[in-house]
Amino acid sequence: MPYLTEQKIRIFDGSGNELQPSQINWQTEEAVNCSFRQDPGPLNSMGNVKVNFHNPHAVYLHDTPTKGLFGDNARFYSSGCVRVDQVQDFVAWVLRDNGDWGPTEIQTVFTTGERKDVDVSNPPEIHTTYISAWANRNGVVSFRDDVYEFDMAGKVTFEA
């Protein structure tokens, strides 16, 4: 399975032991008992970093290798999670009270692709909202597709 190796996708058995693609009999259902994890980096659709935050929907913030998407007007490309533009600056701000995490350290981790799980010393509160229409300062109204159909359902409040 050169594809898995080329895409930096690692395989783990039910006990968390890493397996090589050659150790799995792909002609059986053996693979359904495995977990697959793609290393962070330019091949991963979440880019270099994933930022978890407390919410009841398992939503998280993440980088993207497809930076050009931020210039698009219609940006419903993710599966419910949130892509972050200028993610390196955002991560530096989130880790601002963690002492050893400045822009150089963050860039080093992004460059090496090393997985680092970091407990945030002083986590910021992160609030999200769902907006499908708004007016700018000049009174020009912009509309976007109601992709979750919340407007049609009359939903105006969301659980915290």
Explain this structure to me?
The chain is an alpha+beta fold and 160 residues long. 17% of the residues lie in helices and 15% in strands. It is built from 4 helices and 8 strands; from the N terminus they run αββββββααββα. The longest helix has 10 residues, at 103-112. The protein starts with a helix and ends in a 7-residue tail after the last helix. The model has no long low-confidence stretch (mean pLDDT 87).
What integer is the average pLDDT?
Answer: 87
* Total beta-strand segments: 8
N-to-C SSE string, H for helix and E for strand:
HEEEEEEHHEEH
What share of the residues does DSSP label as strand, in percent? 15-25%
- For the largest sheet, list the strands in their spatial order: 2-1-3
Structurally, how many domains make up the residues? 2
Oligomer: single chain
CA gyration radius, whole angstroms: 20 Å
Distance between the termini: 43 Å
**Which shape, going by the Cα principal axes?**
globular
Percent helix, as a range, is 10-25%
Sketch the major β-sheet. 3 strands, antiparallel
The stretches of 5 or more residues where confidence is low (pLDDT under 50) are none
Helix/strand/pairing class, anyone? alpha+beta
